Amino acid sequence: MILQIGQTDGESLRGLMEKLILDYWPPVYAYLRRRGHHAAVAEDLTQEFFTNLLSNNRLHQIKAEGGTFRAYLLTSVRHFAISRYRHERAKRRHPGTPLLPIGDLESFLLPATSTEEDPETAFERHWAHRVIELGLEQMKEQCRIRDRLTAFAVFESYIRHKLDQGSSPSRDQLSQTFSISAKRIDNFLYRGKIAFRKHLKTVLTETVTDSTQVETELLSLYKTLTD
């Protein structure tokens, strides 16, 4: 997708850029909130940041020989925040409909964002969680097509427990919750982990300019979630 952006213009370009923005705005909002902006101001600044990104087609700046959208987005919002601070002004969003329907931004914040983390850590953690959400969405759709939604429900419960609690749910817990034998639970999780890794790589492939960067991005994601 990043490579397509570098080779596209007009409405097609805007469509690609809007998809990336809708997929990955939460890390930007988390970064701005953690810099000390109140929710309403951070929301305005998030809209302004992406307005500038769209109006100036700045995603063309990602170099095909080495850029990743994650690194580019973090660098861009860092520069944007510094510029806004230096000018000591807050440009309000344009009247009427917001640039993009990103909804209730505050409800997407993960625990600890507004009080404990530095902006960069908040950005990376929200990026990792967003990639996981997109991977789960892809996996659910594939399981729906293959009539394996029960298997997906088990795996999703496993993943969300790890994200929320920091540990894996026991096989017995899952077995009791879903009224499925422990052996089938093991099978669902084994196959699910293999499939989920593939979906994560598919998601990350859209955010890099070189397929060799996918494994590096995947390792960065794991590190962010386990630190």
What would you say this structure looks like, in words?
By secondary structure, the chain is an all-alpha fold. It is 68% helix and 0% strand. The mean pLDDT is 82.
Instruction: Compute the CA-based radius of gyration.
Output: 19 Å
In the predicted model, the low-confidence regions spanning at least 5 consecutive residues are none
SS summary, helix count: 9
Rounded mean pLDDT is 82
Helix and strand arrangement:
Layout: H1 2-5, H2 10-34, H3 39-55, H4 69-87, H5 119-145, H6 149-165, H7 171-178, H8 182-205, H9 214-226
Helix pairs in contact: 2-3, 2-4, 2-5, 5-6, 5-8, 5-9, 6-8, 8-9
What are the key terms here?
9 helices; globular
Summarize the entry for a quick read:
With 227 residues, this protein is mostly helical. Helices cover 68% and strands 0% of the residues. It has one domain.
